[in-house]
Every structure is written in structure tokens, then in C-alpha cells.
Amino acid sequence: MSNQTLGVIGGGAWGTALAQMLASDGRDVRLWAFEAPVVEEINAQHRNTPYLAGMDLDPSIRATTELADLADLPMLLVVTPAQHMRRVLASLPEGPGDLVLCCKGIEEASG
Known about the structure:
The chain is an alpha/beta fold. Helix content is about 30%, strand content about 20%. It is built from four helices and five strands, in the order βαβααββαβ. It has helices at about 15-25, 35-45, 50, 80-90, and strands at about 5-10, 30, 60-65, 75-80, 100. It is globular, with a radius of gyration of 13 Å. The N and C termini lie far apart (about 40 Å).
């Protein structure tokens, strides 16, 4: 597998842990999080205290609150809670390559 930048949609504990795993494998990672303070802390201090306290993050993880910042990537790990996945993916601009669903939770059927 080449050293392409990968994206992670979801800056909670699970998404941040997956981003760290990808970064520890030598990849650059763009991590989308809903909360601006989480993004700021990841970029400035390489930590995600609200969701993954006590863990230093690789500096190759760059966080953003803009889904458009991930639109050019070949692969995205979708790590939002299942009940928010539909709304978040509907906001994603066209462009990303493969989506790998890593969601947890229960999505109730509508209709």
C-alpha cells in the first residue's frame, strides 16, 4: 500500500485511535471532528483530551472541522456514531474514494 494521505471522519475516541494507528504506520492523516476545540487541541498540542485523555498523537494527524478538506482523499474511514452517519455523509462533498465504515451504535430505520 502506498503512503497516501487517508482521512478519518469522526474525532471521538474510536476515530482518534484509528487515526493514531494509521499515523503510527507512517501515514499522513486528516481527521474531521465536529467540535472546533477538539480540532484546535489536536493541531496545537497533538492531544484529544475530551475523548482520548493521556495519549500523545502523532504530529502527522491534522484535524479539521471542514468535511471538504477530506474530499480529495482516496480513502475515508467513517467513524461517526451510526445515528449521525447519514447526516454527516450527506454533507460530504463529492470526491473521496473508498469509504470504510467503522461506525458504532444503532441507526433506526426510517419510513
